[in-house]
Design a protein that fits this description.
The structure holds three protein chains of three kinds.
Chain A lengths: L3 E3 L4 H13 L4 E4 L3 H8 L7 E4 L9 E3 L3 E5 L4 H7 L3 H7 L5 H4 L4 H6 L8 H6 L3 E5 L4 E5 H4 L11 E8 L7 E7 L7 E10 L2 E7 L9 H7 L6 H8 L15 H21 L1
Parallel strand pairs in A: 1-3, 2-3
Antiparallel strand pairs in A: 4-5, 5-8, 6-7, 6-8, 9-10, 10-11
Helix pairs in contact in A: 3-4, 9-10, 10-11
Chain B lengths: L8 E7 L2 E7 L5 H7 L19 E4 L2 E4 L12 E3 L8 H8 L9 H14 L5 H8 L10 H13 L5
Parallel strand pairs in B: 1-5
Antiparallel strand pairs in B: 1-2, 3-4, 3-5
Helix pairs in contact in B: 2-5
Chain C lengths: L12 H6 L14 E7 L5 E7 L1 H5 L3 E6 L5 E2 L6 E2 L5 E2 L5 E7 L2 H10 L1 E6 L6 H5 L27 E9 L2 H7 L2 E9 L11 E6 L5 E5 L4 H11 L7 E5 L14 H11 L5 E4 L2 H6 L3 E2 L1 E10 L5 E13 L5 H10 L9 E10 L5 E2 L6 H19 L3 H8 L21 H12 L6 E5 L2 E12 L8 E8 L5 E5 L8 H13 L6 E3 L3 E2 L14 H28 L6 E4 L2 E4 L2 E7 H4 L3 E2 L5 E2 L4 E7 L20 E12 L5 E11 L6 H20 L29 E7 L16 H4 L1 H13 L10 H10 L1
Parallel strand pairs in C: 1-14, 12-13, 15-19, 17-18, 23-24, 33-34
Antiparallel strand pairs in C: 1-7, 2-6, 2-8, 3-7, 4-5, 9-18, 10-16, 11-12, 11-14, 13-25, 16-17, 20-21, 21-32, 22-23, 22-31, 26-27, 27-28, 29-30, 32-33
Helix pairs in contact in C: 10-18, 13-14, 16-18
Classes of the chains: A alpha+beta, B alpha+beta, C alpha+beta.
């Protein structure tokens, strides 16, 4: 249960306060949209007693397009992203997360770094191998996401995701964004697919197929092997699924596999033409 | 951990046009505070999980699920709850179109719709669907709500 | 008619659109202690030890209560310990209650209760429950006290077996030239009302128990507390304000028991118990499931000759309403068809699932899914048009129902007319399936439905009318306003009868069992019939009393008087009149003599002619009337992925008379919406331990805005002559045919028999693979 709510003015204040509270034996957490902290905390599935509100930190609220990059702060809500629509693929992916009112509160950082494993908002960042800026008490580090991301964005204790940089050229590339659900138009994903054609090559990333979102370079190499037919490539690509296919109340692993190959075909058909 | 000295936060916030000062534990949600500290029971708990929308209020012009917000977060903000509307076009349209039955989800819907109409001029059916998907109604077929919204848009073309 | 049929605004409309409407949890009761439930983490286990010492000693805890020493409770079968003792029978069953100052303290204490379980094999379906090696959930069922008409099967998990034996089934099968036999299944689901259940309880020093609860049956709460806890009936007062949706789920008495026990344990202090959404779905009673086997036969021309059915209802861990549910399923075990030879065995089965409360349709949605699928299968096999087949067999006045009731024009709506209108609206003869794109088809599906109630025979509804000094009237009725708008319809009925403005009729929304006359339970779509007749009965008394007093004042015989516009007037000379406002509190002569006093009128109504059902044949008269419908859907489906959209949903429903047009439309469409979501997506998923895996509204999904189809509703009016203005009960009927119509459409599209719910794309894909 949250017993302290702290509003830092700067990143330094945020990260040193975090370290201090850790030392004092508390369980601090950065608080962005806070939706997971509140809902999981209610079920005692999260042990957070100090909330450090980073929503108003200027670096976390950056939202601009300059000559080379689109810069997005981790405290931007999914609605903020969709409204500005600098990156249509990101807009389309974010628009399917939860519902509109919830997206007014769910943040980019919360979706990517939270506990719920779908993390759909990370897919466009994987596809574009964007640069992530992370900060803790000791340092600020920047890395390409594909060098960092291993099923999750691994943050050191007390480290905070501040902002992401996406190369401008990707913003206008042809893309596909599809979310398949168990039924109709609402609910968790069965599979969410994000794909982009850039530099004559197709890139793909998925959420909901496994218990973590992924982009597999090996899978992409297979999908870009035009010596094979589309259906051959789609079937072969399943070899490169990097983990067990989920089997849960949303759907069985066999059905997910069936939908997955279908999605791959759809993506190839749509993007190959371009 | 039960703390020896309970930590309380003072929050100054404008609610329905009135400045209020509430004193809350940091863990208290806005929904709980509205209902228990300010006795504004119009916003309803349906799930405490951000899934049903019955707790929707307007904060700085955006609809927000008050069960997904800590009271401590609303320092300095402007909030409108269902109690802050008076004979509004949306309320009238709901009445005339029989857009509610048990009424439990109604305040949440009305606030979401009001926020939408305040910020999107002449919303398309797709936009209406996108916004209203945030609220569950278990009694109606949604057709009456759809008609009510369309009626407000048609009746007040310059406003909405 | 001035008010009947009109779309009169609900009496409580302003409260509901302004946030002023109060539901149970809105009575914040900051002076109440909080009750937290300690719940089982096993689906089936012996309780070896319960240690509450640590919990009791936590600062702020006022009591911790366990099951030992508490009575057993239940409705038709007294089989449920108030708190689990010796054994738990479903995951989430409440074992102990913690009463504490605040929610965090109560939760912490609940976690400190130490329980030792000895797990037992979990019975996860009716099929498993009736297996001969299945563990017995209740040893010695026959030792439980139970209502007449409940027939458990000793030594099994079957707590009720209802039989229908009409005609001779072997003859019927022999006469049949075409036959199908198949199984059908429906998993358990949930009511998911937007307001979760909540109850407050306080016992004052002279022993009067006050309960406030979100319930469809406050009078049943009173009855059960009184009967099982030995409290004098007059000392139990139950209050129910507006209810935020119920759909049958709040007809079962559940949280109120916990509230009472908790308050009693803390010396009568006020306590408050309410469900989180997860508790509302998994701990409180749920929507029953069904496993069915049907054999259906007809002649070459399509005349049904025999129907043989086995219905196994997944009633969950305790009886509650499922024994009665299974009887209801037997009573209307076929769709609305004339069949000479019917053999039905309807079983209520114990499983290690949350137990079943009534759910809108009360077994009819479940039974119709199975039966209407069977009808489609048989019609297709016989090569007969699916609508024509139904029309050939449509039940009519003069025919007999499964319980051998001979139907009259009043007792049943017009099935044929509904089918004919449906054929027209659906443009059925233009074809039921067409390809609209590669791999995509548009397809139509149909189901015919009927429903009677099975409540009674000795249930009643009472009404008290009081007058205000301005001549306006107050209606007190024990009917609860759960969203159906029935309370407003009562005002319309009274306004119509009194020939006065409906605005001058006030209806008391909050029901309290001490001052408001009992309406048995707000269930079964019998509100308009029972409370409506009680209103009319009270109106007669009011009119008689008004005329009696006016006759003295106007000095004319009573027969020369009539009542309208809040006046009593002489028929032959209307200007000779006296207004209500001058007589409802008595009349004062110029010299000061006063006569009459305050005018009060009462009325009541009991459904007549109902009989018990014969134990061997099921023969008997179960209820007053059958409303009928022909319902359908139009679906667009991708036949490779099985992903589909419902574009249109249609109901042609014989409602007898429309009492409030927009109200009736809202009820029918709302029920259809619920039926669609139930069929397409709503199911509780259990793991091997009997734990529900999807207990939140993000994983258990009612229909959302934007997912709804276009609705087309037509009303047919064949009056029920016992009902106010001929109106039939219609609150549930929209739901009943939706799963069947949808499954029928999808079966046609995929050319495969789709006989299992829910109808998700994966489920369709799987069922097609398996066939």
């Amino acid at each position: 249960m949250i017993n302290e709510f702290f509003r830092p003015q700067t990143i330094e204040q945020a990260t040193s306060f975090f370290a201090q509270k850790m030392e004092e034996g508390y369980h601090p957490s950065y608080y962005n949209g806070g939706t997971e902290i509140i809902t999981l905390g209610r079920l005692d599935q999260l042990n957070v007693d100090v909330a450090i509100d980073i929503k108003s930190l200027p670096s976390c609220r950056v939202h601009l397009l300059d000559e080379d990059y689109l810069v997005l702060g981790s405290a931007l809500s999914l609605t903020d992203l969709a409204e500005a629509n600098y990156f249509p693929l990101l807009t389309d992916i974010s628009k399917e997360v939860a519902d509109k009112t919830a997206r007014n509160k769910i943040t980019l950082g919360g979706n990517i770094c939270g506990n719920i494993f779908y993390r759909e908002a990370v897919l466009p960042f994987l596809l574009t191998n964007s640069i992530f800026v992370l900060a803790d008490k000791e340092e600020i580090r920047t890395n390409y996401l594909m060098d960092l991301f291993q099923e999750t964005l691994p943050l050191k204790e007390g480290e905070l995701f501040v902002q992401a940089f996406i190369e401008k050229k990707f913003l206008t590339e042809p893309y596909v964004a599809i979310k398949v659900r168990q039924q109709w138009k609402t609910g968790y994903p069965l599979i969410t697919a994000a794909a982009m054609k850039t530099n004559h090559e197709i890139r793909v990333a998925f959420s909901g197929l496994c218990s973590f979102p992924f982009r597999s370079i090996q899978m992409e190499n297979m999908l870009n092997d035009t010596s094979l037919s589309i259906s051959e490539r789609s079937r072969a690509a399943t070899k490169y699924i990097p983990g067990d296919i989920l089997n849960d109340v949303e759907g069985s692993s066999e059905y997910r596999l069936f939908i997955f190959t279908n999605l791959l075909e759809k993506i190839l058909i749509q993007l190959e033409g371009n | 951990m039960i703390y020896e000295t309970p930590n309380l936060v003072q929050v100054t916030v404008k609610i329905n046009g009135e400045i209020q000062q509430i004193i809350v534990p940091p863990s208290k949600t806005l929904l709980a505070s509205l209902r228990e500290d300010l006795f504004l029971t119009g916003s309803k708990p349906g799930c405490f999980n951000g899934d049903c929308g019955a707790c929707t209020v307007i904060i700085d012009e955006l609809p927000m699920k008050s069960c997904l917000m800590l009271a401590a977060e609303v320092e300095g903000k402007e909030i409108t709850t269902i109690e802050g509307l008076s004979d509004s076009p949306v309320q009238r349209a709901f009445i005339e179109n029989f857009a509610f039955q048990c009424g439990y989800c109604t305040p949440g819907f009305i606030m979401n719709i009001q926020a939408m109409l305040n910020s999107v001029k002449n919303p398309s059916p797709d936009t209406i669907k996108e916004w209203l998907e945030s609220n569950i109604c278990r009694c109606t077929s949604y057709e009456e709500i759809e008609q009510a919204v369309q009626e407000v848009i048609d009746k007040y073309p310059s406003k909405y | 008619m001035k008010y009947i049929g009109k779309s009169v605004f609900r009496k409580e409309y302003l409260a509901k659109v302004t946030g002023k409407a109060k539901y149970t949890s809105d009575f914040l009761a900051t002076d109440a202690l909080h009750v937290e439930m300690v719940k089982s983490i096993y689906g089936h286990a012996y309780l070896k030890k319960i240690d509450i010492e640590k919990a009791e000693n936590l600062q702020g805890v006022r009591a911790v209560i366990v099951g030992k020493g508490l009575p057993r409770i239940g409705e038709e079968i007294i089989d449920r310990p108030a708190l689990a003792v010796d054994k738990v029978r479903y995951y989430g069953e409440v074992i102990a209650l913690v009463v504490a100052d605040t929610i965090p303290i109560a939760k912490k204490a609940a976690a400190l209760v130490e329980i030792e379980y000895e797990p037992l094999a979990v019975v996860n379906s009716p099929q498993q429950a009736i297996d001969k090696d299945a563990p017995l959930l209740h040893e010695g069922i026959e030792n439980y006290s139970m209502d007449k008409g409940i027939y458990p099967v000793k030594g099994t998990n079957i707590n009720n077996h209802t039989k229908i034996r009409k005609g001779d089934i072997q003859t019927g099968i022999k006469e049949g030239e075409v036959m199908i036999e198949s199984s059908f299944s429906i998993p358990i689901s949930d009511h998911a009302a937007m307001e979760t259940r909540a109850a407050l309880c306080e016992i004052d020093p002279n022993g009067i128990t006050h309960i406030v609860t979100s319930s469809q049956a406050p009078y049943m709460v009173k009855k059960i507390i009184s009967r099982d806890f030995h409290v004098e009936a007059g000392n139990v007062i139950v209050e129910t304000p507006l209810v935020g949706g119920a759909y049958g789920g709040k007809a079962s008495v559940h949280l109120e028991i916990f509230a009472y026990i908790a308050s009693r344990a803390v010396g009568g202090r006020k306590v408050r118990v309410f469900n989180t959404r997860e508790e509302d779905i998994t701990v409180s009673p749920v929507h029953v499931g069904l496993e069915a086997r049907i054999k259906l036969a007809c002649t070459k021309e399509g005349k049904l000759t025999a129907a043989q059915m086995e219905y196994f209802f997944d009633g969950g861990a305790y009886g509650d309403k499922s024994p009665h549910l299974t009887t209801a399923g037997a009573v209307d075990c076929t769709g609305p068809y004339q069949i000479d030879h019917i053999w039905c065995d309807s079983y209520s089965v114990y499983t290690n699932h949350p137990y079943a409360a009534p759910f809108r349709g009360f077994s009819h949605g479940e039974v119709h899914f199975a039966f209407e699928r069977a009808v489609d299968m048989l019609a297709k096999k016989a090569g007969i048009d699916l609508l024509t087949f139904r029309e050939i067999n449509a039940i009519k006045p003069g025919d007999t129902t499964p319980t051998q009731v001979v139907l009259t024009r009043s007792k049943i709506g017009d099935v044929e007319k509904c089918i004919q209108k449906f054929r027209e609206i659906m443009e059925w003869d233009k074809g039921q399936i067409e390809e609209i794109a590669p791999n995509k088809v548009r397809v139509k599906g149909v189901a015919c439905t009927w429903k009677n109630s099975t409540i009674g025979p000795n249930v009643s509804s009472g009404v008290v009318l009081t007058f205000n000094s301005d001549g306006s009237i107050n209606i007190m009725s024990g009917l609860v306003e759960i969203g159906t708008g029935t309370k407003t319809v009562l005002a319309q009925i009274l306004a119509e009868r009194m020939k006065m403005k409906v605005e001058k009729i006030h209806v008391r929304m909050t029901v309290d069992t001490q001052t408001v006359p009992e309406h048995w339970k707000t269930v079964a779509s019998r509100g308009t019939l029972m409370a409506g007749r009680a209103v009319l009965d009270a109106a007669e008394e009011a009119i008689q009393k008004l005329k009696s007093l006016a006759s003295t004042i106007l000095r004319v015989p009573e027969d020369d008087l009539d009542v309208a516009n809040e006046k009593v007037f002489v028929k032959s000379n209307p200007s000779k009149s006296v207004p209500f406002s001058e007589i409802v509190y008595g009349y004062t002569y110029p010299n000061g003599n006063a006569i009459g006093g305050q005018l009060l009128a009462t009325g009541s109504y009991t459904i007549t002619g109902l009989t018990n059902l014969d134990r061997e044949t099921g023969a008997g008269n179960p209820g007053p009337e059958w409303a009928v419908a022909c319902q359908g859907v139009e679906v667009e489906i991708d036949v490779t992925t099985c992903v589909y959209q419902i574009t249109k949903a249609i109901s042609v429903i014989d409602i007898g008379e429309v009492l409030n047009e927009k109200g009736a439309l809202g009820q029918v469409k709302g029920a259809m919406s619920m039926g669609i979501a139930w069929a397409g997506r709503e199911a509780l998923y259990f793991d091997e331990n009997g734990r529900v895996l999807n207990p939140q509204l993000r994983t258990y999904r009612p229909l959302r805005f934007g997912e709804h189809p276009k609705y087309v509703i037509e009303f047919i009016k064949t009056p029920h002559l016992e009902a106010p203005y001929g109106g039939r009960g219609a609150g549930e009927h929209g739901l009943i045919g939706m799963p069947a119509a949808l499954a029928n459409a999808l079966s046609t599209a995929l050319k495969v028999d789709i006989n299992k719910l829910p109808l998700t794309p994966e489920s369709l894909w799987k069922q097609r693979k398996e066939s």
